[in-house]
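Hi F.,

I've been meaning to write this up properly since the lab meeting, where we talked about keeping a consistent format for the predictions we share between groups. The idea is simple: the sequence comes first, exactly as it goes in, then the structure tokens exactly as they come out, then a line or two of notes. No screenshots and no reformatting. I'm using this chain as the first example so we have something concrete to point to.
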Amino acid sequence: MAALPLLRWGASSLRGGHSYAPPSSRLFSALRRPPAAARCEPGSRVMLKGMDYPELENWVRSQGFRPGQAMMLWKCLYGNNVWAHCYDELAGLNKDFRKMLTDHADLKALTVKDILNASDGTRKILFSLEDGSVIETVVIPCTSGRTTVCVSSQVGCAMNCQFCFTGRMGLRKHLSTAEIVEQAVFARRLFSDEFGSITNVVFMGMGEPLHNIDNVLKASAIMVDEQGLQFSPRKVTVSTSGLVPQIKRFLQESNCALAVSLNATTDEVRNWIMPINRKYNLSLLLGTLREEIRLKKKYKVFFEYVMLAGVNDSVDDAKRLVDLVRGIPCKINLISFNPHSGSQFKPTPDEKIIEFRNILIQDGLVVFVRLSRGDDQMAACGQLGEPGDYQLPLLRVPEKFQVAL
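Output, unedited:
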């Protein structure tokens, strides 16, 4: 997407609906000298990527600088192919403003620990957080020119989905807005020259994004900001295992895409492989989607369906899936299970996935079979994380599925 022109004096009109006129010299002097209480306390620091634009503009004003400097800083952080990580990269900002930022602001929330290269070109980035925790982010190039960054929203995950390696970890920590946004910034810094534009973001890394909804909503809004990272809202997809109250809020507050990890067609199976279903069952989940999406024009939800051999891949499952999603504008992604040491499941054979897909297509559904990417470096769907010595317990396998495992 072409970069929009830098609006030196127009930032306020973009967000507040009011025109912005250059202040008089007297007013300009007043803006440069706010009350002492508005300034940063000595030694205090803010994380710039934790703020959306209105917050950044207010903070810049509070430090005695004009709003135009806030927009220039915003473009250094997210636009103009700069993606600044150090003060030397803040080109165009005046000396006093840069000095204030050096004293009171941090530009970088993450540190690259390692980058793993998969045989298919997928890259897995290991990031260290300030407390020593590690998260994983995946960059997936595609021959069609689309390159996707898969970001994490937490260290670990509380949902304990039985087929997911991250779920073995339990929840260790929610990521901040800055730690989420920085993953997309790093992807562009590291790989834009090699892969071309990073066009898509999926919140399908470590964690349940809607369990960290405040920071995910804020991070996704920064990603789609037209003066910043400029991702199209329809190319930023937030995934969920089915937290119903948070789904309602997301659909009401965000224009980004929603992906629901469905993975079963009966409550019996979903209660087992996705324990969140015991609180928000299929009827409640799908009924909520049916009602909320009705209010959003031309909106379609993605249903993610991980194919588990002998568990959820029968012809009857396919027919039930058709009935379950009837009346919900949607697309369905069928995903081959990616084996890992934390699970006993087996992937559905390719020919059975095709049979399953054809049943859905015959009923008019839009269906994609998603190929595994990066599995030789544990970078594929459901393979991220490092459980360590402590792991959440596996749940009891229903008797009728014990043979399949």
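Notes:
Confidence is low (pLDDT under 50) at residues 1-42.
The longest strand covers residues 134-141.

If this format works for you, I'll send the rest the same way.

G.
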